[in-house]
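Posting for a labmate who doesn't have an account.
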Amino acid sequence: MWKKFLAICTVMILIVALVACSQSQNGTQPPQEGENNEGQQPSGDTGNAASDGPFGKYDPAIEVWTVFQKTDSNLSLDEGETIENNRYTQRYEQDLGIRIKYKWTAPSTQAKDKINIMLTSGDIPDMLSVDRETFEKLYSADLIEDLTPYIDKYASPYTKKYLSGEYQHALDVTTKEGKVYGIPNGVSYHEHAPMLWIRLDWLKNVGMDLPKTGDDLLKIMDAFVNNDPDKNNKKDTYAIGTYKSTPGEWMNDAFWNMFNSYPNIWIEGKDGKLQDGRFGNDYKSNTKNALLTLQGWYKKGYVNPDFMTMNYDQYQEDVLNNKCGIVFGAEWDAYGPPLLTQVQEDPTIDWAPVPIVSLGQQPAKASTSVFNCWNINVVRKGYEHPEALIKMCNLYHKLNNDPETMEFAKYNTDPVTSAAYMDLYPLQVYNPSFNYEASLAIDKALETNDPSGLCEAYKLFYDRIKAYLDNHDVTGWCDYRSYTKDGSMGVCDYYLKNKMLMFNEYTAPPTQTMIEKLPVIKKLYDETVAKVVMGENISLFDKFIDDYRKLGGEQMETEVNQWYESNGKKSINQDLNK
């Protein structure tokens, strides 16, 4: 049992490393001794000119002052290592001649306040990893360096790949008037989209296959309610597992997307202007249709009759108690409760991810963002070696991300001990489609039964998948249902190949109207959905649309289109769905 637990922990740490940047951790440990050691921040060594080339070494070495924001995380430090002196600080000095120094170290829960204090005084370190809100403040205060010429000259081919071509929109977040002011870190559209998860063992029990059309899905839903999918000779199941919307969306984006409704994104409409993908003129009738359909499903018993008042824990109980067989989810559902918990408890159970199907007037598309930004790495304006950040990104990619060069067990995650070393580096920048690329390589190795070409990170997943396929070792179920053509990355690949993604075309920060009005609008919308689903007249939705525009929807649309006009009205959907 302990071996299985350790194996799952190892993979979960790896997923966190590759999918969820640790800049946003919410640890609660108190500050440890030395965490508030404010230091003198020198302006930087200027004893040499910048060495040419992506990995050019400074001689004599230079100092890069930054901050360490993760002392509350479960840092993996081997004997003799400290935050200030470890495998990363040593390797960066050895390979690049860069000495990483910390102005202060602190838990992530305190870091933002400390950064805001520095911002107010204008006293920021040479380099800094910040959230998007802080980036905007730094840019507005003219405190950060234009990195455009340094990216052009110093970025390695691997680094440039993920800032250009099909990844060029990653820089939308940090580009101002044609100049790039930060290196973004996050995940790309290649591996992030909503999808369905369906009980495959239930499908077998009712003699049906995975859905390929909307009609298929409707028949499956009916069978999951009326054809005893759990074979207990009782009518005690329903089709869909869900719960009260707060703080997310009723039924998840996957549900609305099947009706060509796209919550929380802005899309260019028929008039060439951006409009809300759910409440805009081109989409409100689709949302209305989805809402009416949900009302019908509720009457037919396709959802738990109490789902309007259920919380997430109660939803999990329904799944674990075999009450439902369809979940509207996303790409990493196999790595956590309730699906993983259920499969671990009963290995005969199997959940399969499936692309959304169309229940609307047009082919279905899954809503996503071209780039989900976790953090942005910036350089203090006036720092003598701004190109050093680009070199540091190059080396991080080399050690962690590039399959040809990675030293994964040493610098990211040890597959034996589960030690997560990546958090020792303060300016992380991941390959934004690492997991998608891994799945393509793993699928090829599975087809040929030849893993010899896999890098150590990919091989870790491959071995677990083979153990599941060959020996039904449940430890590898989550990897199989994520990193293969039969997993969530396979669904993402299907979306890409079939042009089934609908991108958010508003990539700027929230406007002031959004910040002030969206909570009020969401509350009214949630109340409207609840009433309609419970049987009240659909005219309530029409009234909501009128109220939405008065409460701020019209003003938000104006603000969004002012931004769109100023950026040349470049449609991401037209660009990436050619």
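Reply:
Got it, the structure tokens are right above this. The domain at 11-186+374-424 is CATH 3.40.190.10 (D-Maltodextrin-Binding Protein; domain 2).
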